[in-house]
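Study the following:
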Amino acid sequence: MPPYKENRMNTQERDKKEAEVDALVKQKDTDAACRLLVALVTEYAKEKNFKKAESLYNRLYEVDSMALTEIVRAGEIIEEEKSESVDREHLEIWSDLYGTLSTTEGNALYYSMKTKIFEAGEPIMEQGTFNSRLYFINKGEVKALYLQGDREILITMLMPGQIIGQMPFFTASVCTLSLVPMNRVKTSFLETDVLKKWKNDVPALESRLYDYCMHNDPVKKALDEKNIERRTDRREKFFGRIKFVLLDKSGKSLGNAYSGEIADISVGGMSFIVKSPKKESVRMLLGRRLRVIFDLPLKSHEKPHKIDQAMTVIAAQPQAFDDYSVHLRFDTKWAQKMMDAIDFSENL
């Protein structure tokens, strides 16, 4: 006997049912409209069209936010179908990670991922460049390399079940290492834009993933063991007001000036603190050019030396209470005598 097949609606039938929902809502028969919506959610979820299923699920709230039985049932159907379609090999590799998440969070993570394959020698990330992806290694081996002067140092080897790109992904900063496949590497990855979507759908998922990544960071562990200092310029604490303006590609100012508090300075760059309740706005600074204006007090007790120059944002890291630390790179390193002339005693 041929296998049993469920009686499923075709496209025309589904379109007709959706039109019926609209008609029932106009007739104020919300009970019938909700039952029909649950049937449609079931149809789309079973064929793994979760985008459409979730759209109809949201429609349930619009039709009758108190239809709790139908809302709960429709949500359960979507989660059940998502769980059934998850790649079991992927689940086995990442069982520790998924073990920290609820079913809803696990499904949200899994269905936010995309897949990319890298061939041997094809860089996944390159030191000094910007990256907005968090990679999950499913197959293959990856070298973590650090370029120090003209020396290339092997930091560690990364295997399936390990994550790369934690700091650039969560803190909006440039890559401080290069990651290069030893052989063919299959990865899953997330783009930073999913974080905004998760805030509404699964608000705890970002912090759970962040904690997992920070506690399972083989690159950081290897760097600590090798005691490699990646900062080449000594930073000096420095406090003072700063004004900055966004620049366009041609170097022209965009909009009004913003203010911040300088945190430190070196011959190669500086950082300052800015307050913003919007994480996305601060992340947008990464890689942008800023015109930066501030005063440097001098040991000679002459009037302060005014700095007014363009710089590049290389990191934007969250601090406490909506504060962000914005890190800048100078186009050209200052001469050491410039640093020696600064009166840091005013900052004590």
Q: What stands out?
A: The longest strand covers residues 305-318. The chain has a mean pLDDT of 86. Residues 165 and 333 are 27 Å apart (CA to CA). The chain has 13 helices and 13 strands.
